[in-house]
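During the no-cost extension, the postdoctoral fellow (Dr. R.K.) reprocessed legacy sequence entries with the updated structure-token encoder. One reprocessed record is reproduced below for audit purposes.
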Amino acid sequence: MNDHDLMLQLAATGDPDIWGEIYSRHHGRITRYLEKRLWGRSAHLVDDICQIIFVRVYTKRKKYGPERRFLPWLYVVARNEMVSRCQAYHRHSGVDIPVPELVDEHVEAVEKPDPLTLIDPEHHPLLHALYWEGESLRGAARKLGIGKDAAYFRLKKALKQARHAS
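Re-encoded structure tokens follow.
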């Protein structure tokens, strides 16, 4: 069973065996994620934060829905908990643990909007004809009832909007 389906089943049942399976699959990955961002820190701190992250996975299970993707969701939980624990440690001990860089490859996948939603909907039929149907620029223009030059400028504008969205 894949991670997404396991998490949906955990959300529905709360079965500790399913939680154990998720823990087994991802404990090493989350530990490495923390070690990379908290390098040089106590191994106990990394272990403590890792344990708390998996407790949060269990307690937040009901918020996990079918529209989510498991790994990006897990990394958001991990990042948020890591930052929270670093800030709490600083408040209570007076020892400064720099908050790790908040933008990373796993979180960006969750936080970036789909560029297509940021492109003017007027350009969607042209993009669909070109990239999904495989039409040439001339064929797409003919299909949409516009001139080749108009199609070229719409494509140029849509690609510019997509670049600015990412």
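The CA atoms of residues 129 and 140 lie 6 Å apart. The helical segments are 3-13, 16-37, 43-59, 70-93, 105-111, 124-132, 137-144, 148-165. The remaining legacy entries will be reprocessed before the final report is submitted.
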